[in-house]
Amino acid sequence: MAGSDYRPVYHPAGHDNELRVAVQDLRTGRWVSMARMLERTEGWGLWTQRTQVLAAVAAGSDVVQAWRAEEPHSAPAAVMHTRVTVERAVRAHRSGHPRTRELWQEAWTACRDTAAIRPADPVPWVCLLALAPLDEDRRMDEHRLAPPGPMLPAGPWGILAEADERDPHNREAYHRMLQFVYAGTPGPLTEAANFAHWAAGSAPPGSAAHVLPLYVRVERYRRERGQEKALDLHWVAEEAIRDAGHALDRWFLSADPRRVSPLDLNHLAHALWGAHRFEEAARVFDAIGPYWTPLPWAYRTRAPADQALAEEVFLQARSRSLAGRD
Predict the structure, then answer these.
(1) Mean pLDDT of the chain
(2) For residues 64 and 70, what is the distance between their CA atoms, to the nearest angstrom?
(3) What residues are paired with 203 via a beta bridge?
(4) Which of 13, 78, 91, 117 is paired with 275 by a 20 to 30 Å CA distance?
């Protein structure tokens, strides 16, 4: 794949072949592959990741509803129902849909119901974190709890703790919490950066929490796009290089590339390339294989919505990095 004929493919399942098959069936209205795969899924991290990907695909159809009708006592079907209702509420909020409050209430109830019947499952709590940014005025008490450390904002810390208790440092839980912090900070991202470094500081080797600071740096870059003269320096600043190296050493070298998020791999490759650590970036591009993601590469283009431009940047970065180890 090092030659000029290499062409990346975007697929939310990444290297997870079983998930890729289930997604394909889901897109054609079939749920059996999804159901059987979830029954065989071991480990809360993989369970969370797979249900998240499936929900994003299923939210626009009634496939999960059909599954529940056929297997009304299936616990995985109940989890997927919760996932889909949450995904629909989040999308409605994002688009300003008039039914947002109704969908939000339905999703919140589904989360609580599923948490009751699946007490060991972190997904209902992860889903509650996904809904937290919909409470824009922070009216709910559970979204205004005092933080566990200094320099952190008030927020749904109790919900994060529930997810953490079931699956310590659950990747999606911490990303959902980061989204909540973003929603409350339209300006400088100091609180988001503090949260990301706090999470990474307590995470064990191999945890995706070590990649969180790279996401904050990309978000800061996205918000500051108008300051053109600062863009190139953004990635070679001492802190940026340190964050990239930390994610490489504490996450990538201890993680199984077949089980990690393609987004995390792409963010790390992007950070190392931006920091001119080309030889190390090449190792991450090897792990990415054919499964790229448009983000964060799209933010390096003049038109972030144009996937072709993002792919061009990805290919340039990959080529430069692979050449850097020759």
Answers:
(1) 92
(2) 10
(3) none
(4) 13
